[in-house]
């Protein structure tokens, strides 16, 4: 079933690709790749964002570790008192401890969501600038398609525009970014 679908897709794409290549005045489609994630994170702004987020993460992680250690100590104390506490008192303390553990888990989830939101807010402008740079490179160097490198199994090193995009970004050669999602087909 999968093989049949693959053969059908291939039989449909080969004629389209052939006609697209035939329409090219130079005789071939120019394709390049860029590792968008690496480009974003290796710019000077990207490195600063990573450092800021790491500090925030480490701070929150220390807070969570402290709370977890406190809860572990409480559990050990409850276990030590198990023989002298009444059954009701023991169950109440265990119930309170479980509630605190659930609150800690909830806090962990909240911290993760907050950090993800901060990362998105801080990296979105970098992403838009990188995409504008990629568009500029593609336009000035006559590339027909620029594909994210992470989606390609193999590419020659000379077709990778990542380092060029990082250099342009860091040197301030940033065109006015287009809104996200409009970098393609324009």
Describe what this molecule looks like in 3D.
By secondary structure, this protein is mainly alpha-helical. The chain has one domain (2-170): Skp domain (Protein Binding, DinI Protein, Chain A, 2-Layer Sandwich). Helices cover 69% and strands 4% of the residues. It contains five helices and two strands. It has helices at residues 2-22, 36-42, 44-81, 87-140, 162-170; strands at residues 31-34, 145-148. A two-stranded parallel ribbon has the order 1-2. Helix 2 (36-42) crosses helix 3 and helix 2 (36-42) crosses helix 4.
Characterize the quaternary organization of these chains.
Answer: single chain
Low-confidence stretches: 1-24, 181-186
The CATH topology is what? Answer: Protein Binding, DinI Protein, Chain A
Number of domains: 1
Offer a few descriptive terms.
Protein Binding, DinI Protein, Chain A, two-stranded parallel sheet
In short:
The protein has 186 residues and is mainly α. It has five helices and two strands, in the order αβαααβα.
Note the topology.
Elements: H1 2-22, E1 31-34, H2 36-42, H3 44-81, H4 87-140, E2 145-148, H5 162-170
Parallel strand pairs: 1-2
Helix pairs in contact: 2-3, 2-4, 2-5, 3-4, 4-5
């Amino acid at each position: 079933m999968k093989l049949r679908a693959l053969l059908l897709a291939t039989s449909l794409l080969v004629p389209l690709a052939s006609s697209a290549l035939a329409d090219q005045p130079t005789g071939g489609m120019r394709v390049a790749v860029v590792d968008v994630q690496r480009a974003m994170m290796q710019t000077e702004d990207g490195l600063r964002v990573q450092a800021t987020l790491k500090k925030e993460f480490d701070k929150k992680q220390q807070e969570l570790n402290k709370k977890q250690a406190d809860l572990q100590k409480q559990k050990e104390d409850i276990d030590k008192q198990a023989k002298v506490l009444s059954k009701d008192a023991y169950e109440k303390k265990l119930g309170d401890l479980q509630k605190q553990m659930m609150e800690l888990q909830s806090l962990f989830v909240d911290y993760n969501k907050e950090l993800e939101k901060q990362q998105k807010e801080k990296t979105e402008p970098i992403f838009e600038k990188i995409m504008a740079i990629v568009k500029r490179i593609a336009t000035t160097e006559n590339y027909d398609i620029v594909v994210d490198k992470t989606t390609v199994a193999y590419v020659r090193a000379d077709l990778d525009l990542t380092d060029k995009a990082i250099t342009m970004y860091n040197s301030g050669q940033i065109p006015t970014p287009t809104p996200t999602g409009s970098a393609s087909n324009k």
